[in-house]
């Protein structure tokens, strides 16, 4: 017998539900807003202090920075607030359902706010300003010079080059802007570089915001989408593993160079497309997935960094074969499919062919340089401890590392090795069933480990293509395998272990992490250990939480551990690169504006005695002779060295410092190697400089006394406390 509600009772319940929604909405907005405002306002104060001896960041208290800080923090804080108000499962289901819309919103938000992860506030420091002027969170990283000094300035220079394939602005010798460096170009093959589209459509500053935000969002979503397939729709461990990949220390420290995110994205997206192609019977959808696979192939090939491409390609091959095996009995490739595969293949080859035709000389020159030249790696030399040192590298953003290496080179993944391998083997043993994909990945994992730690004979290294892979770069392949194995094994881990056994695993893994923390940071003579006792406590806590999340199945305990570990990894990953507002440090500061004014009044070819300032000149559209030489400037160097005496010095990827002399002295070398293999020092006379077309020189030195009686450097303007602009002119 049903219960009949009085109309007044129904009205009361409806009213109660209405007011409940109102209060929940107010709570969802007000709590994150108040908390975010408090953190943002006090951030400059506590950012100047150390926590556990970790330098947190630099702080800026300008109103626009504080408002952006509040907006970002409020967005982040709304998630845990929603968990409390609406429920953990309900919120997570909503986030999963609308993940693509949320991702799109994050990208649009970053572009509107004009924020990126560039370290370009380093330019404020070089131009005599404040290195925190445009920093929302974090601090600019001088070690990321490949980004702020090379890639970003070259990308910005393309705006003044109308995004042409070759440029006379950077280097003044028609430098190839597509094949080697990560710069936007109007060419058909740019379809394979989607993260450049922001530059082409929105300009330099907004394009940079799109470049950084879109790569992060797509990397996470691509990882998550494939892991849903790989774990048979286990959302928790797909999310967990996607965070481990996206915000891995190694990924973030190398984020803007060598296209690592693009390689991982193209691998995961192509595998998802392959799975959809094999699964669906709808003809038009199958053709769409074929097109996506070719698109990913172009993105992967044009990453152009074999040291990472080769190990990732091995993983991609194994995963692709496992998908084909999984769907083997249901695969039915039609005549229409074959026509589509051939047609898209011809388009793909035509686009790739256009690149290699246009860049043929660049490719030949690059392959024949003295540095980096053609690799013949035989592996070996990586410490065994680094297999377990990933968690310790989460400390790198908060504490300066000054050992025998640098933060980028010692950064690793948090992959919880060897738990993924052990659980994969345990699952096979328990089920008494061979897991072809898991077993093959385990085997490949150990091949990678042996090559990087012990090495191969040269002949074996060449057969496997590992001769193109340096030992340290195999870390990417090893860790991606470990994370994939972990996600899949935990998702399939359906048998129970005792509490003492689980505790033993937790303690054992923590001990391995202590060993890894001690051996993953090469220390120079006279220095103390990088990971101190306080740092070791942090490492052990994170390792313990992560292992408990893996080994213990109690839902509340696992949830707390997963959320805690991912929060710490996310915070560490975010603080590797700064949250940077706009691009004023590079293209809208007092110094560069004066330089542009000088050039607008009387245009000419620029140079600098320091390669650092040459990059800034080119970034602002000033044709510059000595920007980074991706390939040698043969016309200039052969003029200075007609007999080729110094070719082994300048036939390399090189940053070029210039020194000017009145006349050539007896025994003087025109070319010398700099402080590193990618630097050269070029000495030229005033006559040679004039012959090469140099009109202006930006320098911190006094050049007015240099004269050969016919030519002289005349100071045009002092543009900063240390920098002056000189014009090479005839003696009156």
Quick synopsis:
By secondary structure, this protein is α+β, with helices and mostly antiparallel strands. 57% of the residues lie in helices and 8% in strands.
Q: Could you walk me through the main structural features you see in this protein, from its secondary elements to its overall organization?
A:
By secondary structure, the protein is α+β, with helices and mostly antiparallel strands. It has three domains: 7-97, no CATH class; 214-580, no CATH class; 589-730, no CATH class. The protein is 57% helix and 8% strand. The protein has 29 helices and 14 strands. The strands form five sheets. It has a four-stranded mixed sheet with strand order 8-12-14-13. Helix 13 (306-326) runs antiparallel to helix 18 and helix 18 (436-453) packs antiparallel against helix 20 (475-492). The longest helix is centred in the N-terminal third of the chain and has 40 residues, at 7-46. The termini are far apart. Mean pLDDT is 90; it is low at 51-56.
């Amino acid at each position: 017998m049903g219960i009949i509600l009085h109309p007044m009772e129904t009205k009361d319940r409806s009213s109660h539900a209405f007011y409940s929604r109102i209060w929940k909405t107010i709570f969802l907005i007000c709590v994150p807003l108040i908390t975010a405002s408090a953190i943002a306002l006090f951030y400059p104060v506590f950012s100047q202090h150390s926590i556990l001896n970790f330098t947190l960041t630099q702080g800026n208290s300008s109103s626009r920075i504080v408002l952006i800080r509040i907006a970002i923090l409020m967005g982040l804080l709304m998630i845990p607030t929603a968990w409390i108000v609406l429920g953990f499962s309900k919120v997570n289901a909503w986030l999963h359902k609308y993940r693509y819309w949320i991702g799109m919103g994050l990208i649009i938000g970053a572009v509107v706010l004009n924020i990126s992860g560039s370290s370009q506030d380093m330019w404020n420091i070089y131009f005599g300003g404040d290195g925190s002027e445009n920093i929302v969170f974090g601090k600019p990283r001088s070690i990321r010079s490949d980004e702020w000094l090379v890639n970003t300035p070259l990308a910005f220079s393309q705006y003044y080059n109308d995004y042409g394939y070759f440029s006379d602005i950077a280097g003044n010798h028609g430098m190839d802007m597509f094949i080697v460096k990560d710069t936007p170009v109007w060419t058909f093959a740019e379809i394979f570089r989607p993260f450049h589209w922001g530059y082409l459509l929105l300009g330099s500053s907004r394009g940079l915001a799109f470049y950084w935000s879109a790569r992060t969002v797509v990397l996470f979503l691509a990882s998550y989408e494939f892991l849903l397939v790989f774990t048979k729709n286990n959302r928790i461990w797909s999310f967990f593993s996607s965070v481990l990949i996206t915000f891995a220390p190694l990924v973030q420290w190398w984020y803007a160079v060598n296209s690592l995110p693009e390689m991982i994205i193209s691998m995961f997206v192509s595998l998802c497309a392959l799975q959809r192609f094999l699964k669906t019977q709808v003809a038009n959808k199958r053709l769409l997935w074929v097109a996506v696979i070719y698109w990913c192939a172009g993105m992967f090939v044009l990453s152009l960094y074999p040291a990472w491409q080769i190990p990732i390609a091995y993983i991609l091959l194994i995963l692709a074969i496992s998908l084909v095996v999984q769907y083997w009995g249901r695969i039915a490739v039609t005549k229409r499919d074959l026509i589509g595969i051939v047609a898209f293949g011809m388009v793909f080859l035509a686009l790739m062919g256009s690149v290699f035709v246009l860049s043929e000389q660049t490719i030949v020159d690059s392959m024949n340089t003295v540095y980096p030249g053609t690799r013949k790696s035989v592996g070996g030399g990586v410490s065994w401890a680094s297999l377990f040192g990933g968690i310790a590298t989460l400390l790198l953003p908060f504490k300066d590392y000054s050992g025998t290496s640098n933060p980028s080179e010692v950064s690793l993944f948090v992959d919880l090795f060897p738990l993924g391998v052990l659980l994969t083997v345990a699952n096979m043993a328990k089920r008494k069933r061979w897991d072809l994909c898991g077993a093959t990945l385990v085997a490949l994992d150990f091949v990678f480990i042996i090559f990087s730690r012990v090495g191969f004979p040269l002949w074996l290294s060449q057969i496997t293509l590992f001769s193109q892979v340096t030992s340290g770069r195999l870390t990417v392949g090893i860790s991606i395998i470990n994370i994939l194995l972990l996600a899949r094994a935990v998702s399939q881990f359906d048998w129970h272990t005792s509490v003492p056994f689980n505790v033993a695993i937790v303690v054992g893994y923590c001990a391995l992490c202590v060993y890894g923390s001690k051996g993953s940071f090469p220390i120079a003579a006279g220095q103390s250990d990088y990971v101190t006792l306080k740092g070791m406590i942090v490492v052990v806590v994170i390792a313990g939480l992560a292992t408990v999340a893996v080994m213990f199945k109690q839902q509340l305990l696992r949830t707390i551990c997963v959320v805690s570990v991912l929060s710490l990894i996310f915070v560490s990953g975010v603080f590797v690169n700064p949250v940077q507002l706009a691009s004023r440090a590079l293209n809208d500061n007092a110094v560069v504006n004066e330089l542009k004014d000088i050039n607008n009044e009387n245009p000419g070819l620029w140079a600098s005695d320091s390669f650092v300032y040459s990059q800034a000149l080119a970034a602002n559209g000033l044709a510059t002779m000595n920007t980074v030489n991706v390939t040698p400037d043969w016309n200039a160097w052969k003029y200075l060295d007609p007999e080729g005496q110094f070719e082994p010095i300048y036939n390399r990827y090189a940053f070029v410092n210039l020194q000017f002399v009145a006349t050539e002295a007896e025994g003087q070398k025109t070319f010398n190697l700099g402080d590193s293999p990618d630097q050269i020092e070029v000495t030229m006379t005033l006559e040679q400089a004039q012959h090469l077309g140099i009109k202006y020189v930006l320098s911190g030195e006094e050049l007015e006394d240099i004269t050969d009686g016919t030519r002289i450097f005349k100071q045009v303007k002092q543009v900063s406390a240390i920098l002056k602009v000189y014009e090479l002119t005839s003696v009156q």
